[in-house]
Structures are given as C-alpha cells and as structure tokens.
Amino acid sequence: MEVSTQSTIQADAKVKAINKKSTLISRLRENKIAYFSLWFLVLIHVIVFLGPLFWKVSPEELQQVGALTSWSLQHPFGTDDLGRDVLARMLTGGRVTLIVGLGAMLCSLFIGTIIGACAGFMGKAVEAILMRITEAMQAIPTFFFVLVALTVLGTSPVMVVIVIAISSWMEIARVVYGETLKWKQYEFVEAANASGATPYRILTRYIIPQIIPSIIVAGTLTIAGAILTESAISYLGLGIQPPTATWGNMLQNSQQYIWTAPVLGVLPGIAITIVVLAYNFLGDGLRDALDPKFVKK
Fold first, then answer.
1. End-to-end alpha-carbon separation of the chain, Å?
2. Which of the residues in the chain have pLDDT under 50?
3. Which pTM does this prediction carry?
4. For residue 261, how many other CB atoms are within 10 A of its CB?
5. pLDDT at 296
6. At what angle do helices 86-122 and 32-54 cross, to 10 degrees?
7. Do 129 and 120 form a contact (C-beta atoms < 8 A)?
8. 79, 86 contact by CB (below 8 A)
9. Cβ atoms 79, 69 nearer than 8 A
10. Which of 7, 197, 243, 280 is 20 to 30 A from 265 via CA?
C-alpha cells in the first residue's frame, strides 16, 4: 500500500512537471520583452565568457598607442587612463561582475530556501525563531550592512559574494516560507506523511519541487540586485579592487575623465543598466509564465 501511494504521488508530480515545461516557453513568448531579455542575456553571457578566447588582448597590458586613445581597429573601444585596452577590460570586468552576481544569487537561494522551508514546514518554535531572524535581518539597512561587513572582512571576490548573499536571502526565505505553508496542506503531502515518509523526504521530494518556479523567479530578481550592489560598492572603492576589473570599479576609475574620455564611463554604465533591466524583465516574465492562474490574452 505504501509503495502504491508513493508511486501515485511521484507519477502525479512528473505529469505536472511535464505540463509546466511544455507550456513555459509558449507562455514566456507571450511577453515579448521578457522573451527578448532571455535571449539578450544569453548573448551577453556568451560574449563575456567566450569573448576573451577570440579577443586575446590582455586587460592589464599597457598598450603602445598610449593612454586615453579613441577607437581604432586595433582597439575598438580605445584605451583607458593607463593605456589598457577598454574592450578587453569590459569583457574581463563583465565576467567578474556576472560571476559575482550568479554566486551571490546561488548562495542567497541556498540560505533562503533552507530557512523558509524549515520555518514553513516545522512550524511552532522553529517557525517563530527563523522568521524573527529573517525580520531582524530585513530591518538592517542592506547597503550599509554590506559596506561595514566588507570594511571589516575584506574585499576579496569570495567575500563580496558571501556578504551580498547574507544581505539578500530574506525575501527568498519569505517567498519559500509562504509557498511551503500552502503546499504542505495538499493531499499528496498528507498522503506522504501518512505513508511514513520522513520530514526531510517530504520537504525534498514533494514540497520543494513544487516551489521551484517561485525560487527561479526570486533568483532571477536576486541576481539583478546582486549585480547592482557589487557595482555600487565597487564604485565606492569598497568592492573588488583593481587591477581586477569589474564594471563597477571601471566606473569608479573613469569618473575623473567623464568629459575628456566619456566612453570609459558610458560603456560599463550602459552594460550594468541593460543587464539589470534584462534580468528584471525576465523575472517578471517568468513570474507570469509560471503562474498557474496565467490566462492568455
């Protein structure tokens, strides 16, 4: 009887997953901006991560043409104040910025999912403690927390990822908490509980898979916030330090040349803006596409 019940539960979950997968792309296509943002982000990531394989100019090498030169075939975006190739630094800086954003997002998802799922499923004392911790963290001004933490702990790339993640998991935890409260009332969860499944198995096999769409949307929006945070702290000189290039510290280095060589600030500024906007548009589109109440207009 137990084996039959679990087989039925797993079969129902597989059918739901197939239906969601088959309709996700078609629903996402309904939102033209989100669908364009998806492919735009794919293109940006391909350029940033594969570009250095083709554009082999070192981002740290001082070029013979000198400093603050305009565009040319040899240096399409010119050189910066030290004579380094701007295109090479945009590619390298973009790679670092996107990796920091992705790393911070994954860490935030891990922390937020565990805390939110445990609070929603365990209830009582565990719920009270974990949600009060979440609310206390939300009461701390995020940006000032990041600045103080990096000032004390250092500004290595790993530390930047950890600090941004610690400051941004709370919204994910609240989303997962609410979804866990909803799904644990469903009959297939009660059936799994009645069949003797452990709390860990119920969470990992039956509840969290149902929350994955909400986690994906939250992660998409979180990576946009992480990129903005990294760029802001790097602009203030408290993020990843030169000579390692990021779009944020490229902005910081270019501010004194905004009138004589505006391209030094415009390029990383535009890159940050359009990538963050694309992630936000994609997140909004995924939220609509993964919403079970979605109605085609």
1. 44
2. 1-6, 8-9, 11, 15, 17-18, 294-297
3. 0.84
4. 20
5. 46
6. 130
7. no
8. yes
9. yes
10. 280
Structural domain including 230 reads: 97-274
Tell me what pLDDT residue 156 has: 87
Helix (H, G, I), strand (E, B) or coil at 177: helix
18 located within any domain: no
Residue type, 1: M
Check if the beta carbon of residue 201 is closer than 8 Å to that of residue 208. no
Which pLDDT score is estimated for 107? 95
Nearest to 202, CA basis, from 178, 187, 215, 184: 184
CB 235 within 8 A of CB 251: yes
CB 234 within 8 A of CB 249: yes
CATH of the domain at 228: 1.10.3720.10
Other CB atoms within a 10 A radius of the CB of residue 155 amount to: 17
Is residue 231 a part of any domain in this protein?
yes
Domain-located, residue 124? yes
What phi and psi, each to the nearest 5 degrees, are found at residue 70? -80, 180
Q: Give the list of residues 6+ apart from residue 190 with CB closer than 8 angstroms, or none.
A: none
Contacts of 297 (CB under 8 A, 6+ apart): 30
- What's the total number of domains in the chain? 1
Q: How far, in Å, CA of 213 to CA of 8, rounded?
A: 22
Cβ proximity of 62 and 83 under 8 Å = yes
Residues 6+ apart with CB under 8 A from 103: 161, 165
Q: Is residue 279 in a domain?
A: no
C-alpha–C-alpha distance, residues 87 and 91, integer Å? 6
Per-residue model confidence (pLDDT) at position 12? 52
State residue 291's pLDDT score.
Answer: 65
pLDDT in tens, 118-171: 999 887 899 999 999 999 999 998 888 999 999 898 888 899 999 999 999 999
How much is the pLDDT for 43?
Answer: 95
- Residue 85 backbone dihedrals phi, psi, to 5 degrees: -65, 125
